[in-house]
Specification:
Shape: globular
Structural class: alpha/beta
Strand content: 15-25%
Number of strands: 7
Helix content: 40-55%
Radius of gyration: 17 Å
């Protein structure tokens, strides 16, 4: 039986690269995204891919997504909380809605989705959760605003979950990438060769998820070569 992986935000960027890698490795791959066009493009590329349309900023939709995963696929082997959004800003000046959107999308979605599916992993005493944090989870930036706050929160969630899951045999990985060539960087005046390819992040996650069950890679920081983005 194929192992099952679910990736939120899986229709583009890092999420799509992860989906491709695990699909190539003969996993049963399920992704979600808000935009149906991106899901259709991914499905056209990977015919056996399972796609679900979901707005992960909506708590009700995320809870329904978790229930759908449980009903249709049963226990996941790997959960990748990758979906998120980015908007630069400053806490003292940005609109309240920016903070609320960042927290719902980047933090709350991972919280509710993980809670919804991890029971089946616990029952098997087996599984892996990967949370896509950021270097913004580690370092405060003048323009980080609510985005950085949400990523600090996600890292805290990931570390606490790691402690809780030790007795259940479930690994929890926090990955903190720097600048990756994804749509978030479109229009930014930075040469493409200065950005990490998303395929590198996918390869790192593959390696972290395929070590022996006696080992867990807890925290991964990965940056462009010069270390400044």
């Amino acid at each position: 039986m194929k192992q099952k992986i679910f990736i939120s935000g899986g229709s583009q960027g890092i999420g799509l690269a992860i989906a491709r890698k695990f699909y190539q490795e003969n996993f049963d791959v399920i992704i979600c995204a808000r935009g149906k066009e991106g899901l259709e493009r991914a499905k056209a590329e990977m015919p056996l891919l399972h796609t679900i349309s979901c707005d992960i900023s909506d708590k009700t939709a995320v809870k329904a997504l978790a229930e759908q995963l449980n009903q249709e696929f049963g226990a996941l082997d790997i959960l990748i909380n990758n979906g998120g959004t980015y908007q630069p800003g400053q806490l003292h000046a940005e609109e309240d809605e920016v903070y609320e959107t960042m927290m719902r999308t980047n933090m709350d979605s991972a919280y509710y989705l993980t809670k919804g599916v991890i029971g089946a992993m616990i029952a098997r005493k087996q599984g892996m959760v990967v949370n896509m944090c950021s270097v913004a989870s580690l370092t405060a930036y003048a323009n980080g605003g609510a985005y950085s706050v949400s990523k600090f929160a996600l890292l805290g969630f990931s570390k606490n979950l790691r402690e809780e899951m030790k007795e259940h045999g479930i690994g929890v990985v926090s990955i903190m990438p720097g600048a990756v060539k994804t749509p978030s960087w479109d229009g930014v005046d930075v040469p493409a060769e200065r950005l990490m390819p998303p395929e590198d992040i996918a390869e790192i996650i593959w390696n972290a998820c395929t070590v022996s069950r006696r080992t867990v890679v807890e925290d991964i920081v990965v940056r462009p070569f010069l270390g400044d983005l």
